Amino acid sequence: MQGHSASETDRANDASAVFDLDRVIPWLHAHLEWLTAPLHWEKLDGGHSNFTFRVRDANGETIVVRRPPLGDLLPSAHDMAREFTIMKGLWGTRVPVPEPLALCEDTSVTGAVFYAMRSVQGVSLYNAEQALATVPQDRRRAHGFQFIDVLADLHAIDPTDVGLGRLGRPDGYIERQLRRWKASWDASMTCERPDVQRLHDFLADNVPPQGPARIAHGDYGLHNVLSTTEGRVAAVIDWEVATLGDPLADLAYSLNLWGKRGEQSRRAPKPSLVPGYPTDVELLERYATRTGVDLRDLDFYVAFNHWKSVCIVDGVLARYANGGKSSVGVDVDGLGFGRDESREKAIDVASTFGYRPA
Questions:
Q1: SS3 content of the chain, % helix, strand, coil (to 5)
Q2: At what angle do helices 298-321 and 194-204 cross, to 10 degrees?
Q3: CA distance 292 to 119
Q4: Sign of the torsion formed by the C-alpha atoms of 131, 132, 133 and 138
Q5: Per-residue pLDDT for 7 more than 70?
Q6: Mean of the per-residue pLDDT values of the chain
Q7: What is the DSSP string of 132-175?
Q8: pTM score > 0.70 for this model?
């Protein structure tokens, strides 16, 4: 094992606020013997959930270390061991993921499960400004199609072939998702929105029959892929909510995030709406051609995922409100607008197949 110097801790910046570096650094050296002291820690911004740090050693070798938020968490939330296992199963398939390196399930080390993975060069695209700065216009169309091809490739994998057949129950995905995110809403609700309950009940009564279960990422968007300046998807990240599920739900969620041309929003423009990217309709056609999927029930999945987004974003807002995550530099008002826009969209789409708002 290699020791660690005081300078490593000094350069860790705010890593010391979320990691017990006196224990984590020796653990990393013990499990990744090729790391050379000292280590330089850099917090990666952009996400609203887990803490993620890039760690560079004295020889320029770079890894990423990831752990859950601070504070009390829902029992199934922010499961780092699950995320690590999924990437381990997908490593080497057609779905690009960072190489998983080491998992620490001993919570006595730093109070939570954490893991290390190989660093991948690429940018998570959260808004139009980032897309414009990262991907050249003449590469955006190909980038968009590769984005949806990767999702189709994920859904083509038989989970048992990659050791993930026990990732979750193969049936009842939508029903479980409705229960999970309704529980999240109930636990962290930051505002009164009666339609969230009514939409839950309506959707629960109208769940379409599920086809073969596949690995569902659960939050697949340009913010959760690392994109290169050549317009390539270098890796898919953030697998913490992935499970066995209905691929149509995964598809609809991604299409909702992609957005429609000309849509109005109080939030920052979506990266996929800058010039050059294919439309959501083109992505849907590409996915359908590649998979042969039956899309007759797609509106249900679109409405369900708008409703799910309401619950997810409200949980994020709750973490900022209770101090589990710092809100410095975060557009909290924008998140609130996004939550309410998702609720309105869920109502609009659900109304096309029978929902009646109060």
A1: 45, 10, 45
A2: 140
A3: 35
A4: positive
A5: no
A6: 90
A7: HHHS-HHHHHHHHHHHHHHHHHHHHS-GGGGT-TTSS-SS-HHH
A8: yes
